[in-house]
Amino acid sequence: MATEEKDILRGGQFLVKETNCEDVFTPEDFSEEQNMMKESVMEFNDREIIAHKARFEAKDYALTEEVMRKAGEMGFLSVAVPEAYGGMGMGFVSTVLTCDYISSGTGSFSTAFGAHTGIGTMPITLYGTEEQKQKYVPKLASGQWFGAYCLTEPGAGSDANSGKTTAELSADGKSYKINGQKMWISNAGFCSLMIVFARIEDDKNITGFIVEYDAENPNGITLGEEEHKLGIRASSTRQVFFNDTVVPVENMLAGRGEGFKIAMNALNVGRIKLAAACLDSQRRILTTAVEYATERKQFKTPIADFGAIKTKLAEMAANAYAGESATYRAAKNIEDRIAMREAAGNTHQEAELKGVEEYAIECSILKVAVSEDVQASADEGIQIFGGMGFSEDTPMEAAWRDARIARIYEGTNEINRMLCVGMLVKKAMKGHVDLLGPAQKVQEELMGIPSFETPDYSELFSEEKAMIAKLKKAFLMVAGGAVQKFGPQLEEHQQLLIAAADILIEIYMAESAILRTEKNAKRFGEDSQSAQIAMAKLYLYHAVDIVEEKGKESIISFAEGDEQRMMLMGLKRFTKYQNYPDIVDLRIEIAEKVKAEKKYCF
Ligand SMILES: Cc1cc2nc3c(=O)[nH]c(=O)nc-3n(C[C@H](O)[C@H](O)[C@H](O)COP(=O)(O)OP(=O)(O)OC[C@H]3O[C@@H](n4cnc5c(N)ncnc54)[C@H](O)[C@@H]3O)c2cc1C
């Protein structure tokens, strides 16, 4: 049964509405079918990817293609594709789950998989006509054909709408001729279909086209050599040149000038899937690190027994746990939103498009947070391995190199930081999320006399939830103050936007970890969740520090005199614990659990 609109939080609304823990989806809520899918994907990852890790690192591009075909045979490329086009038509959570558990073997495969199933296929499933979908999607879903996505050009990276590739209509009106150069194109070396963005005449916005590619009959398409990259070494990345490439008019995607919209919406899906793709890497890095740390002895002691190493294990675990919590929370919100729209009469295509677009803020938040966590985790992984971590003979150096790309593609983390705050402000202006009312209340609270009552924080997470509510006030105070001061010119104050984004990101991630743990503590018992409770508390503690630091630098920059003093006092109040958690103890508890299980065990 479809969930009622009123029950589903809109995108960005987490900031102003309290969420009950019963209303968040967690990895512990996977259905039997989802757990079976997870097992099957993990088994595939072990057998087909991890077992051949060295070949991927040796730039065996053919292996990437071969494993992609096998993934197609297993149905993994078709999880998100509707049954009408040869897919499994599973929900969004299953799509995210597949992406999560198939991605940890090597970034090479994970990139090929993500580029094909996400930006290589989704533009057609989301925007294609019935004919386009019938013609192309079954081939992509089965792995008979692979897809690539050609947006970036030498002069058009983050400024994606500024591309110079042109599309010119033929005299008989039957086809377009595409001319131009694309670069950094994943899967270029083995794809049969490209989603190509080009400009028609002097249009303001680019247009999307479906372009077939057959090396035997190249239709003016030539490929550059494989790029030699820091990481994801066996992922095919090439330049693509179009020289009078003829594309029938019926291969235009959506309408003329709609390309930028397509590009951006495809990226929304890509971003949450990229976050998911970084999760199992974090689990695997931690597991490998703890296995090593319990074996490796120095000073006659396993290094895992040293406080310095325990700190690392605990922080790595807490970050991975928060990433999982937030990714699956958002994935289910998207799935529910799609179901709600379908129940209201939208086609699956419209529902999916709008469902994902609704949570574009969360998709950007996740992309930034999880891509940075996986990098930090791999970095500490190397440190735990010491000199061996620097060697190609152990898995950490490849994990570190592979993780690095996640902060660059699908929109750099700088662009995504600015996007998530920009989108939130836009939603507020459109009336989709009421930020003004809550921001005014915070303003009044700042002017008023603070309460001197001592709240009762005896119940699990009562203080942490009160803290999250205060952090939200801090965001409203800081971002609201900046909007008031600069209005539409806020766009030009990137340092403020980025600071606000950091606050927003921390709130979403910390809240997600707390809600997941609260839900699980209620149903499985607090004792069973002891380490998870410690991780949620540890994550929040750091989040509070970040909010304080970013809030402070912002307030000092845009407010002066009494206003500045009042806001700084407010910030202090909004970031103050009544009972500070002993994070040294929390870290020990988490590390001991991980050590005892010798793996990421949550
Ligand atoms: C391995 C790999 C695979 C890729 N796969 C694909 C693919 O399949 N298809 C595709 O189309 N593209 C692909 N890309 C391209 C990728 O999406 C771009 O590299 C990315 O969007 C950044 O663009 P750029 O490299 O031109 O950097 P630039 O846009 O030049 O950015 C350089 C730096 O400036 C910052 N910056 C840029 N603009 C602003 C701004 N307005 N405000 C503040 N900071 C700014 C950026 O954050 C970054 O730190 C891939 C790239 C790589 C490396």
Automatic annotation (TrEMBL):
Record Pfam families: Acyl-CoA-dh_C, Acyl-CoA_dh_1, Acyl-CoA_dh_M, Acyl-CoA_dh_N
Residues covered by the Acyl-CoA dehydrogenase/oxidase C-terminal domain: 257-419
Ranges of residues in domain Acyl-CoA dehydrogenase-like C-terminal: 470-573
Molecular function GO terms recorded: acyl-CoA dehydrogenase activity; flavin adenine dinucleotide binding
PROSITE patterns: ACYL_COA_DH_1
Entry's family note: Belongs to the acyl-CoA dehydrogenase family.
Designated name of the protein: Alkylation response protein AidB-like acyl-CoA dehydrogenase
Source organism of the structure: Winogradskyella arenosi
